[in-house]
Amino acid sequence: MTKRTDQLPPALPAISSVHLQALLGASALAVLWILSMSLLDEPLHVMQQTAVALAALALGGLAVLDAHTGLIRNRHNIAVGIAATVWVLASAFTMDGRVILTALATAAGCFALMLTIRTVSGSMVGGGDLKLIPSIAALLATCHPLCALIWICLSFIASLAFVSVLRVTRGQRGMIAIPFGPPMAVALIPAVLATESFLAASAI
């Protein structure tokens, strides 16, 4: 009796529901940004528009993963970091070469700010969040450095709002640990709109 050699090929790994939700979250935030661009007083440069879209894709997907797992993994931060670096360099060629220094300074400043806050607050900001923030800040710096600062401030306001809701709905007291990814995603588009509105009003 001969053995059969026509074995079926191994099945492709199935996409987990969490990763599917992350894909939907990334797409939803990017689409919301595209729709929100009509609210801007003055249109952004296409490179700036795309930089925010990249930030939306990253934060939308990672917010879902962070909510499920409480982690933003190194491989995700590396991927976002590479994308941010490539886009900042591309923006320097199409917009202004000084955007590289602006992005580097903004990323370093935001990282230092978040590191200080993490040191003071303990575990409020996780290591994955801390590694992700410079990449998003660099992307937002292609619009304006103020945009990254407003984004961080709104992220903390959103996190405090989430904590307040949990206190009311669940009756929890004391320190409440929440993933910081969702607040960062929620704060992205309002930060861009607020920055551009402020700059437009200041130019009048």
DSSP strand (E) fraction? under 5%
> What's the number of structural domains?
1
- Topology as a string of helices (H) and strands (E): HHHHHHH
Main sheet characteristics: none
What's the end-to-end separation, in Å?
89 Å
Mean pLDDT: 86
Query: How many whole angstroms does the radius of gyration measure?
Result: 20 Å
Structural class of the secondary structure composition? mainly alpha
The percent range for helix content is over 70%
DSSP E strands, number: 0
Low-confidence parts lasting 5 or more residues at pLDDT below 50?
Answer: 8-12
Number of helices: 7
Write down the overall geometry.
globular
Walkthrough of the structure:
There is one protein chain. Helix content is 74%, strand content 0%. The protein contains 7 helices and no strands. It has helices spanning 17-36, 46-69, 74-94, 99-121, 127-141, 145-170, 181-202. It has 204 residues and is an all-alpha fold. It has one domain (18-202). It comes from Nesterenkonia rhizosphaerae.
Compact summary:
By secondary structure, the protein is mainly alpha-helical.
Keywords:
204 residues; 7 helices; single chain; transmembrane helix; mainly alpha; 74% helix
Secondary structure: elements and pairs:
Elements: H1 17-36, H2 46-69, H3 74-94, H4 99-121, H5 127-141, H6 145-170, H7 181-202
Helix pairs in contact: 1-2, 2-3, 2-7, 3-5, 4-5, 4-6, 5-6, 6-7
